[in-house]
Amino acid sequence: MTKEQGLGVQSAPDRKTAYVILGGPDDAQNFAKAGEILRNGGVVGFPTETVYGLGASVYCEEAIEQVFRAKGRPNDNPLIAHIADMDGLEQLVSVMPETARKLAEAYWPGPMTLVLPKLPLVPDAVTAGLDTVGVRMPSDPNARAMLREAKVPVAAPSANRSGKPSPTRAQHVWQDMDGRIDMILDGGQCACGLESTVIDCSGDGIVILRPGYITAKMIEDATGIVPTIGYGKDLGGSTPRAPGMKYRHYAPKGKLYLATGEGSLEEQCKAIADAYDSNFAHGSKCVILVTEQDKGFFGEREQILIGNLDDLSTIAHSVFKAFRDCDTKGYDLIYMRCVPEEGVGAAIMNRVVKASAGTV
Ligand code: AMP
Ligand code: MG
Question: Do 267 and 181 lie in a common domain?
Answer without folding.
Answer: no
